[in-house]
Amino acid sequence: MGYITLDYLILTDPDRSSVYFSTVRSLDLEVAYETDAEPFTGNFTVGGSSIWNVTDSNMQDVFADRGYSVAVTVPSDLSEMNEIPDQNRSTWSVNQLLDLVPKYRKKSSDFQSTSFFIVYVRGQLADAPGVIAVTISGVLGIGPPVIFVFKDMIDQFDSIVSPDKAAKAEQMTLTHELGHALGLVNAGIPLYSSHQDTEHGNHCSNETCGMFWALSDTKVETFSPASPLIFGQECRDDIRNYNP
Q: In this predicted structure, what is the pLDDT of residue 2?
């Protein structure tokens, strides 16, 4: 399968990062999913850890060592997520995706608490077929960043010999998109060192980093949920040295 391009980005409010890393004291993820596009939940077959512990661990690490604590709340079970009706689409425009936000987003945000909205859908993006996800911020009226994950693209990682592969790909994708939402790779969080892959926009030049522009079979296969942190040292240094 080789490399799959991770995402399509519309990031137009870099100032959001200065709020996330100064006044915010709680962050939660609101997850909705189209019928038959539900995210993987439960535990990994190998190792037995919670699937959503990958996202949770990475978000906890993002806000570690700041001299104050940020409460991070990540759902791990479908009962904590919202099912939305089948949208009957095989392709989506950006505007069609954004139409889902006022309909189904329930949580609001302020300077102390932020909620990112994550929606799992069937089909693919018309403008960039084949991308796994889309992260959008700064569009009038949507509130904090919104992440759309294309379940059909995650399904391409399905493997009989490696039962956890698609679940790992999904969690790695989600963590990557949350990195964008927070402002990683010069999209709000300034670079501490030179590691932006400008050819691929707001991505990291370190191939082993979770903010690299693509997700490869090999990277997913070798990822171990027992060592869930996927951001490279360069991206972690960006965060640690960012004090707006």
A: 58
